[in-house]
Amino acid sequence: MAKQVRIGLVGYQFMGKAHSNAYRQLHRFFPELGVEPVLKALCGRSEEKVKAAAEKFGFESYETDYRKLVERDDIDIIDIVTPGDTHVEIAIAAAKAGKMVFCEKPLASSVDKVQVMCDAVNAAGVRNATCFNYRGVPAVKLAKQMIQDGVLGKIYHWRSVYLQDWIVDPNFPIVWRLQGDIAGSGSHGDLVAHSIDLAHYLVGDITEVCGMMDTFIKQRPILAESDDRLGGKASDEMGDVTVDDSSIFLARFANGAVGTFEATRMAAGRKNHNKFEINGSKGSIVFNMERMNELEYYNHDDPAELKGFRTIQTTDGCHPYTGNYWPIGHIIGYEHTFINLIHDMLQAWESGAEFHPDFNDGLKCQKVLDAVKSSSDTRTWKGV
Amino acid sequence: MAKQVRIGLVGYQFMGKAHSNAYRQLHRFFPELGVEPVLKALCGRSEEKVKAAAEKFGFESYETDYRKLVERDDIDIIDIVTPGDTHVEIAIAAAKAGKMVFCEKPLASSVDKVQVMCDAVNAAGVRNATCFNYRGVPAVKLAKQMIQDGVLGKIYHWRSVYLQDWIVDPNFPIVWRLQGDIAGSGSHGDLVAHSIDLAHYLVGDITEVCGMMDTFIKQRPILAESDDRLGGKASDEMGDVTVDDSSIFLARFANGAVGTFEATRMAAGRKNHNKFEINGSKGSIVFNMERMNELEYYNHDDPAELKGFRTIQTTDGCHPYTGNYWPIGHIIGYEHTFINLIHDMLQAWESGAEFHPDFNDGLKCQKVLDAVKSSSDTRTWKGV
Amino acid sequence: MAKQVRIGLVGYQFMGKAHSNAYRQLHRFFPELGVEPVLKALCGRSEEKVKAAAEKFGFESYETDYRKLVERDDIDIIDIVTPGDTHVEIAIAAAKAGKMVFCEKPLASSVDKVQVMCDAVNAAGVRNATCFNYRGVPAVKLAKQMIQDGVLGKIYHWRSVYLQDWIVDPNFPIVWRLQGDIAGSGSHGDLVAHSIDLAHYLVGDITEVCGMMDTFIKQRPILAESDDRLGGKASDEMGDVTVDDSSIFLARFANGAVGTFEATRMAAGRKNHNKFEINGSKGSIVFNMERMNELEYYNHDDPAELKGFRTIQTTDGCHPYTGNYWPIGHIIGYEHTFINLIHDMLQAWESGAEFHPDFNDGLKCQKVLDAVKSSSDTRTWKGV
Amino acid sequence: MAKQVRIGLVGYQFMGKAHSNAYRQLHRFFPELGVEPVLKALCGRSEEKVKAAAEKFGFESYETDYRKLVERDDIDIIDIVTPGDTHVEIAIAAAKAGKMVFCEKPLASSVDKVQVMCDAVNAAGVRNATCFNYRGVPAVKLAKQMIQDGVLGKIYHWRSVYLQDWIVDPNFPIVWRLQGDIAGSGSHGDLVAHSIDLAHYLVGDITEVCGMMDTFIKQRPILAESDDRLGGKASDEMGDVTVDDSSIFLARFANGAVGTFEATRMAAGRKNHNKFEINGSKGSIVFNMERMNELEYYNHDDPAELKGFRTIQTTDGCHPYTGNYWPIGHIIGYEHTFINLIHDMLQAWESGAEFHPDFNDGLKCQKVLDAVKSSSDTRTWKGV
């Protein structure tokens, strides 16, 4: 009989749907884990909406105040998927209430705020994790293993882009992700944050950065009504866009590697083009989230006339996670990255092992984000 | 409040896992459907195994005899995912008991047997469907719409391959899919059956065929123990492989198009390479299940200097099904093809609309399969 | 000082341009060959046109009657690139005159006619070659070496398509390649002939075939005036198309492999899509002429988690031919296939070594072409 | 009768071969141009080597002193393809002698030196051009036309990488391209220079940059003997590498676009991966020199459900240059970029039209190169 772990989820939009699904599905695909999440309570400010969402996602109950949620005895983990400006207070409350905390990235909009969150969980001594879900991609975990095993040799280059195009239309309205006071930043915290974490995970610590952040379309229609994907209806009135459209920077890593990072929401044709390439002395790898079931790999030591980038379909039983899903060649999707990450998190938390990405990894990421912002403002390199 | 439809599932291996998952997930992604499947009972001959599987998949109860299952009052749909040699008797029993019947492909191992199944559901007047799940791929449904709308013009060519490599190793044991008395055939009924249905769906009726079926490795180790993916442990003893390794044929369609079909399990490097290309007078499309979130499309009427195959990421809100999942660019996987197909099936059954693929579509597919087999035996063209 | 070999070329359209270019360039890229072609004379029936072409291509002189050309003492090799219906008489005349003969494919429109050509060169004891230029692609020669070295193991599958779309428009006029009395056949002799030769070269002898040949558009405008690419101007009058639009067949090889061949000029979006895939017990390869500087290769013996099709850029110094061109990654094009093939031909002829593809290889190809035609007519398998 | 233009070429290694080939081939493919280059004289310091090269490339004569070459009355154009440290003096001498000057990039190793070259050609009033040969790629010229026609709308992003891997092996010797006193720089002047020119050509003026240049392997074996590709034999002695392995920078364009540039010779698996992507308000394009016969294009205005990056095969008669080569789908290669560029240069020079890229374009490129170098040294943004 699997041990139950009871989830209290704060937030019910896109990420709420993704997290709920992961909890529901985890035990179905990983029954040997021995831990089964239970969707105990969903929390949101609008009773009407949170009630409907709770029913839709399969929660047993709902709350309209996170302060009540964190105090409930029947909750083990507080999972925070609200817009970024609310993470700090919820995480602190959860930590104080002794709950394990799982929070969406970016943890907050500045190092100071994230530091407060870290301090809170450390003071409370509670388990904590940041939802850098792309660590849960089989191909990414395979990449990690390859690098750890020395398959790529010494790393020289990191090269990432995270390209989207959902706001190319100048009449796309100012949804919350385009509002600085709520979202903190634009592609910066939303997209580059993922790339930074992947670089930390795969290459190592970033020591200094030099960046530029831009907003190409400075005014857009004010939002009339949001939908549950990423968009919404535009009103007739215009307003200021207070976040960046693109965030681009150069970086140096502690191990001597150099890197480029670019994120934008203005790359026509790119949908969720979260791509990176790593070049090392013994080989290279390339990953693109749009084809997340594949990892490209070049082995510098292959016979001279037979060298080339190979496309590994990371769906075999020997690949990370995928033996728990379907036979080889039968792909998984975006939602499974959450299942996989939560699997690793709960496995570690159960066994008492260290788990990454935790809040400290979120802090490390935020330090880079802040340094890039500062670099962009001052037009110089900044140490992290 | 969604209306409940109660599922009795017979079989609990790979396909049992896929179907169960689809039923569990359907309402989460398509709450507006108004129908919610309930996993009422799972059926299998081994009590130990079926009990464990029922728990794993989330069924309320289990049965060890399908005859008892079909008689239960609390079951609305009998879903059959057992090996092919048992479909006929179960489907007949279900029909006689007045249950709706959903059955995995191929329905049976010959036209005669499938005809009996069709007769049974017709006589009983029960709803029926065949699980050609690839009709539930967004890109495939988009292809269907494009062809219906005349986007490709008059169709000239169908060209499909369904390539796998899981038995390239001559020491891969004789699992049930390699046993003719259970599976009926090899790549023929397992893989080409899918391609035939897709061709029927997208291009139209096949009128005659000429084929060749081959078994390259005629003896393999007898199976010691199967696993729940596609493989198992080999014993020391050798046995005869009684199914085809590859099935290849030429075809003519009623509308004048010509086609090629090829399926094999001996194509090193191909994992689930279910690919087709259609060439018409106004354009072409290409689909590959390994990249199921993409559809390639060539528009013959594009400006001369800007013509080329484009890769459509079929993940936008305007594409079939995908608006119910994640934002654009966030891919879905193999399992969602079942959710989508079952969505369409239940939607049709609820509304009283005709649904395809039904048993008759399974029969149409079987007629082609039988004609190919006969053609291969007699080395001539065969009408369908 | 390189030894000169003097060329008399009959024909000056597309292929005349390609062959002339190859002769002119050969010595520049392969100076170590020790043989330098000299463009001695160009031959064509229209004095005005052949004179202009001779000047354009760089020939020293021209002739308007091939009978005069073959008698000239200052010619060593007669190269025939005229439309197919004239190959026989020219080749016979050349052979009788003791000239080495190099002829475009298909050699003629039937086995009987090709046999006469073979008899003529054999009787005369003259060197002879068929211009299956795709044997001169670096990736194809690499494939040959890999197969000879056992890299792919036992071959199970050959799968080729040769797809074009230049006659998809029903108003494309009846150029000579669409006239049966001149061209012999359509995609059959023009395209599938190449695939057959590649299959012979890479896999081995074809023993039996079963095919279907189709003409989708049976009437087209009569040609008013041809251009020097593949097209021309349409007149107002309609005429019958007397060649096939597509030629498709199944095949069995002497070594137990099975194959599919398809050629069509009606595949919208495909330009020169000459593609094949070979699956063997140890690996697979894929080649596409549109990306002729690449060869895809899957090694079944790679580590389990790192298996995948790799894209070899066949431009390294260690690859066939390419060390004589440019540094790695700097691609060559279509025209170099002729240079490479002629290089190998002249090298063999100089050294006294056997050379393939010779007329006998052209005959072998024609036997398959004829068998497919016969099979298509009789709707049964035909031995080759 | 075509007018002859007489070429004096200084240098005979890789680029000498490429330029000679282009001159020899130009008239064959572009007879309507009305200008035919004549390979009059080749110049190099070693009589033995230059004599052999002149014979190999097809020059009528040779010189061992460029000062004698520039004075010859039978020379119209001085073409300079020597290592970078000699460009200045040769170009000045040629200009003073009233010759038209065509020079390989980078023109020299600093803005000051290039300015001197510009002054010299301006003072002499002679025609001049810089060999940014990638402007001669059909796909690149198509891209230029598309952008000029507004097909991409307002440009937001330029994103280029120029990746090679020929020095990944730490034992690769210090050829002249790795010697700062001869080459000026490493990937900086050799590779990024190309990307900068393409960005100037396609997007517009770069106004400021921020870069980092790195040498990962600081010591390598001293060269024993060079070959005529890019490599050579290593001696036993080690020496300092005095050029950069990689050069990476951020850029701002005058029109508001932002860009990233990266060049490296340490990207395992990348051979001549000269790739760029441009994102505009109406669409995007992607080009990769390794597949130089293709241009990827995304049209933001395509119907919503049919949007996607399309791969244009730029080999049709309607595409730039390619109508002069082979039928559609029959690709050209690296060498043809030189033919095409020289075609445009001679066409402009004959007609009296302005031609780009001229020395001034080389200067513009050098200004960016110098600014990046300065930025890398000072760790700040630099205006161009």
From TrEMBL, chains A, B, C, D:
<dbReference type="InterPro" id="IPR050463">
    <property type="entry name" value="Gfo/Idh/MocA_oxidrdct_glycsds"/>
</dbReference>
<feature type="domain" description="Gfo/Idh/MocA-like oxidoreductase N-terminal">
    <location>
        <begin position="5"/>
        <end position="127"/>
    </location>
</feature>
<dbReference type="Pfam" id="PF01408">
    <property type="entry name" value="GFO_IDH_MocA"/>
</dbReference>
<dbReference type="InterPro" id="IPR000683">
    <property type="entry name" value="Gfo/Idh/MocA-like_OxRdtase_N"/>
</dbReference>
<keyword id="KW-0560">Oxidoreductase</keyword>
<dbReference type="GO" id="GO:0016491">
    <property type="term" value="F:oxidoreductase activity"/>
</dbReference>
<dbReference type="InterPro" id="IPR036291">
    <property type="entry name" value="NAD(P)-bd_dom_sf"/>
</dbReference>
<dbReference type="Pfam" id="PF22725">
    <property type="entry name" value="GFO_IDH_MocA_C3"/>
</dbReference>
<dbReference type="InterPro" id="IPR055170">
    <property type="entry name" value="GFO_IDH_MocA-like_dom"/>
</dbReference>
<dbReference type="GO" id="GO:0000166">
    <property type="term" value="F:nucleotide binding"/>
</dbReference>
<feature type="domain" description="GFO/IDH/MocA-like oxidoreductase">
    <location>
        <begin position="141"/>
        <end position="286"/>
    </location>
</feature>
<protein>
    <submittedName>
        <fullName>Putative dehydrogenase</fullName>
    </submittedName>
</protein>
